[in-house]
């Protein structure tokens, strides 16, 4: 995978995607185009069982959108860029593989939205988070107002969005925005450790679990239970289910085929 702003590698069934626009890795149209393409490829790559998304260097995961690009756009242009960004975040959120954000520094604005689109989030103890858009006379446009409140609740979401103030890794963990806080030099290794565990799980069951959680969170409880039931049936019909139950009875470690 040869990209202008992404570094992509596959290591032990885990894809590691690094956004590489130092020093703060801002998102622009080309980055979104490359992210869309690489996630499309990874969804089709049977070697890949888990994905890690991170930023280059220690200063930033992604410190927002590229303001220089945005400043030169009219309403038609910004609406087009906004449509693309929202589409990419949704694509990442609905990837068939579990996605871990390894947040190595600043996660601001669009970078914060990118992290929220991932399934799991591990961050450096020096990471900082904010939705600073209100200070620029705009609001988050990549799903931040929606995904944030589903994690922290509406009241806290409004506090973070209205004031736009920066907060640290431990506040993010307290609010359940991140799953784990680790020392600066352990962010990627911690993400790899989690990814390695996920690669040992039955991939279809993980995929169905993700569909059930994501789709169910956007509807009422009865519809959510119907979605869960359908996903349960899909997982139960797999060869991996037979292998998992057989291995349990035989008291051995299961070997999953992804079928």
Automatic annotation (TrEMBL):
Query: Could you tell me which SUPFAM superfamilies the record lists for this protein?
Result: ClpP/crotonase (SSF52096)
Enumerate the PROSITE patterns for this protein.
ENOYL_COA_HYDRATASE
| Record's keyword annotation contains Transport | no
Q: Does the keyword Protein transport apply?
A: no
Q: Which UniProt keywords apply?
A: Lyase
Instruction: Name the domain of life.
Output: Bacteria
Q: Name one Pfam family in it.
A: ECH_1
Annotated family: Belongs to the enoyl-CoA hydratase/isomerase family.
| Protein name stated in the entry | Short-chain-enoyl-CoA hydratase
Per the UniProt entry, what species is this protein from, by scientific name?
Siminovitchia terrae
| Name of encoding gene | crt_2
